[in-house]
């Protein structure tokens, strides 16, 4: 039995003992370096300037995500007034400048009043306030944006944080969007 194991071991070892071929140098045909550190080698990377920590597709190009936001602006009026104060004018101008070039948005102007007075009187005052703000926006160049109007009576769109009756117009912007690159989560990133 020992001789069979010994013979088997010799045969096994003799089969492995052959002349080794010398290593022949081969020219590197693919660039395996990842210059922009996005996880895709340069030979396959179609977007060589990917920002750090951006998620990429198989071609090394950053993935984009569309971000839609909504916001609101409150323009205050004096008691029983439908004219803009200097502070309110500045707010309307700032608001107009921030939305003038945004494609695909809508603005909902909601006229509001304090609770004093009759419902019909307050509805008319709310409409006057909405018309004042709309005219100011149009004067500031907000022309290609859909502007819709409501009063506190008709609207269920008033955000909860703005609930309650006040002398104001609430401008709600919807559909404001931007494109942003998806980012990889990095626990050690100091830029939080």
Task: Explain how this protein is built.
The chain is of the alpha+beta class and 192 residues long. Helices cover 26% and strands 21% of the residues. The chain has a 4-stranded mixed beta sheet. It is rod-shaped and about 115 Å long.
In short:
The protein is of the alpha+beta class and 192 residues long.
Structural class: alpha+beta
What is the C-alpha radius of gyration, as a whole number of Å?
34 Å
N-to-C order of helices and strands:
HEHEHEE
Q: What global shape is seen? A: rod-shaped
Instruction: Report the portion of residues in β strands.
Output: 15-25%
Q: What summary fits the major beta sheet?
A: 4 strands, mixed
- The whole-number mean of residue pLDDT values reads 75
How many β-strand stretches?
4
Helical percentage = 25-40%
Kindly report the spatial arrangement of strands forming the biggest sheet: 1-4-2-3
Spans of at least 5 consecutive residues whose pLDDT stays below 50 are 185-192
* Total DSSP helices: 3
Distance between the first and last residues' Cα: 72 Å
């Amino acid at each position: 039995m020992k001789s069979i194991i010994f013979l088997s071991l010799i045969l096994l070892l003799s089969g492995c003992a052959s002349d080794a071929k010398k290593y022949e140098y081969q020219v590197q045909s693919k660039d395996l370096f990842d210059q922009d550190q996005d996880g895709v080698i340069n030979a396959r990377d179609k977007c060589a300037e990917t920002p750090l920590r951006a998620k990429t597709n198989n071609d090394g190009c950053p993935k984009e995500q569309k971000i839609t936001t909504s916001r609101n602006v409150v323009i205050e009026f004096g008691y029983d007034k439908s004219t803009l104060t200097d502070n309110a004018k500045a707010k309307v101008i700032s608001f107009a400048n921030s939305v003038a070039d945004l494609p695909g948005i809508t603005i909902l102007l909601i006229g509001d009043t304090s609770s004093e007075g009759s419902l019909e009187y307050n509805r008319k005052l709310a409409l006057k306030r909405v018309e004042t703000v709309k005219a100011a926006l149009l004067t500031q160049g907000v022309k290609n944006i859909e502007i819709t109007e409501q009063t506190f009576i008709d609207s269920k769109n008033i955000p909860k944080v703005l609930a309650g009756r006040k002398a104001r117009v609430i401008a709600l912007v919807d559909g404001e969007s931007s494109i942003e690159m998806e980012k990889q989560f990095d626990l050690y990133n100091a830029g939080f």
